[in-house]
Specification:
A five-stranded parallel β-sheet has the order 7-6-5-8-9, covered by helices on one side. A four-stranded parallel β-sheet has the order 2-1-3-4, sandwiched between helices. The longest helix has 19 residues. By secondary structure, it is α/β, with parallel strands linked by helices. Helix content is 36%, strand content 15%. The protein binds phosphoric acid mono(formamide)ester. Phosphoric acid mono(formamide)ester binds next to helix 2.
């Protein structure tokens, strides 16, 4: 039995196969309508979510399976003090696979150790968000035709943004990837990403404050929201929340074939005027998220591709 806790749980070859399956699903959706008949997905969400929870549910329903779960800690027995370990042992009696989001780093790992069904990390605190990364990889590969030889700008809250940490972890495995890390000093990537991931893998990167100056060299711009829920004090959040706002003036500085991604939800960091720019890919990204989650559910449940 396998879990998906971190993008590195799958080799580059396995991710390649999963993205190819997701692409086949995209182009032949009706053929997959019954491959998970009789299977159940549990969504255990201790933190708010729109995309991740509903795209998992949409994915399982599109595969012919069913879904059950809770959408907040308050509506589960966590509110009575039940541990993650006891909850996953219980859910293992009800479902064939579980997707879990939790505010504490490492929660999905703890769950996987006590689970008798595959566990998917749907976001653990400021740590990792591997299915968002699969979504990002599918988006980049579909739009550019590759996952190598490119400069990726990551902008905003690089300290608390788990999607950023997961994406860096995943992309360092492809040839000739360069990062421009655009953040205020207070929201730079954590030192373990800088030292243990970027430097340890001899990846070219630079850390800058200025988005305008970085724009012309980027092939992908990955914008992120400042993560209010992870700040210790509101004053710091208010001071930093609008540190970068992508607008059409800034887009004029970018390459014609640069794409803008964002894991969403967006707050102010991308002006809605950018939505009309053909390079704005963040809503396409949402759609790709359903196909990769369908592919992931099939892979973890060892469901065969239809003939
Ligand atoms: N991208 C993402 O994780 O969105 P949600 O928080 O809405 O699930």
């Amino acid at each position: 039995m396998r879990h998906m806790l971190n993008p590195l749980d799958f080799s580059v070859e396995e991710i390649d196969r999963l993205l190819s399956l997701a692409s086949d699903i995209e182009h032949n959706l009706p053929q997959y309508a019954h491959v998970c008949d009789g299977k159940k997905l549990a969504t255990l969400f201790y933190e708010p979510s729109t995309r991740t929870r509903l795209s998992f549910e949409s994915a399982m329903l599109s595969l012919g399976g069913s879904v059950l779960g809770f959408s907040s800690a308050d509506s589960s027995s966590a509110a009575k003090g039940e541990s993650v370990s006891d909850t996953i042992r219980t859910i293992s009696c009800y479902a064939d696979i579980a997707a879990m989001r939790h505010p504490k780093e490492g929660s999905a790992l703890v769950a996987s150790q006590m689970s008798s069904i595959p566990v998917i990390n749907a976001g653990d605190g400021g740590h990792q968000h591997p299915t968002q990364t699969l979504t990002d990889l599918m988006t980049i590969r579909s739009l550019t035709g590759r996952l190598d030889h490119m400069t990726i700008g990551l902008c905003g809250d690089l300290k608390f943004g788990r999607t950023v940490h997961s994406l860096i972890n995943a992309m360092v495995r492809y040839p000739d990837i360069r990062f421009v890390l655009i953040a205020p000093d207070e929201l730079r990537v954590p030192s373990y990403i800088r030292e243990d991931v970027l430097k340890a893998n001899h990846i070219q990167f630079k850390e800058v404050n200025n988005l305008d100056e970085a724009m012309p060299e980027l092939d992908i711009l990955y914008m992120t929201r400042v993560q209010r829920e992870r700040f210790f004090n509101e004053e710091d959040y208010i001071r930093l929340k609008d540190c970068y706002i992508l607008d059409q003036k800034k887009m004029k500085l970018a390459k014609e074939n640069m794409y803008v991604l964002h894991p969403l939800p967006r707050v102010n960091e991308i002006s809605t005027e950018v939505d009309h720019d053909p390079r704005a890919a963040y809503f396409k990204q949402v759609q790709y998220g359903v196909y990769v989650r369908m592919a992931l559910i099939m892979t973890l449940l060892e469901v065969e591709k239809p003939c």
